[in-house]
Amino acid sequence: MKEKITTSLAPEPAGQYSQGVKVGNRIYVAGQTSLNVETGSIPDSLEEQTRQVFANIKHVLAVGGATLSDVVKVNVYLVNLDHFDEFNSVFKEFFTEEPFPVRTTVGSKLKGIEIEIDIIAEIECAVVSVL
């Protein structure tokens, strides 16, 4: 069964889609942008924008009961692939332990934003012993 995930701490969807959907122990987070919903602004540098994107992702994950350590797949859309190194340096701040999530980074024409990221997270199930 699909469960809608929504939070006021991340940007509202710009179309007919959910911020996130939880199916069993898996969470799908829609493409998040660098909009800070508290200030209504977008940071200036790509590094700051990337940090804001991950803050938005963390808010959606939290509602579903997950954290960035549960992320298994990351799709990154960059307007300018020449900025890959700046993005990647920030990515390393958020994913510090192996196994790292799998990742795809592609160039994309995004309207009014420099970066968008969507993810898939898998929440680990606790092992229960029955005696």
TrEMBL record:
<comment type="similarity">
    <text>Belongs to the RutC family.</text>
</comment>
<dbReference type="GO" id="GO:0005829">
    <property type="term" value="C:cytosol"/>
</dbReference>
<dbReference type="InterPro" id="IPR035959">
    <property type="entry name" value="RutC-like_sf"/>
</dbReference>
<dbReference type="GO" id="GO:0019239">
    <property type="term" value="F:deaminase activity"/>
</dbReference>
<dbReference type="InterPro" id="IPR006056">
    <property type="entry name" value="RidA"/>
</dbReference>
<dbReference type="InterPro" id="IPR006175">
    <property type="entry name" value="YjgF/YER057c/UK114"/>
</dbReference>
<protein>
    <submittedName>
        <fullName>RidA family protein</fullName>
    </submittedName>
</protein>
<dbReference type="Pfam" id="PF01042">
    <property type="entry name" value="Ribonuc_L-PSP"/>
</dbReference>
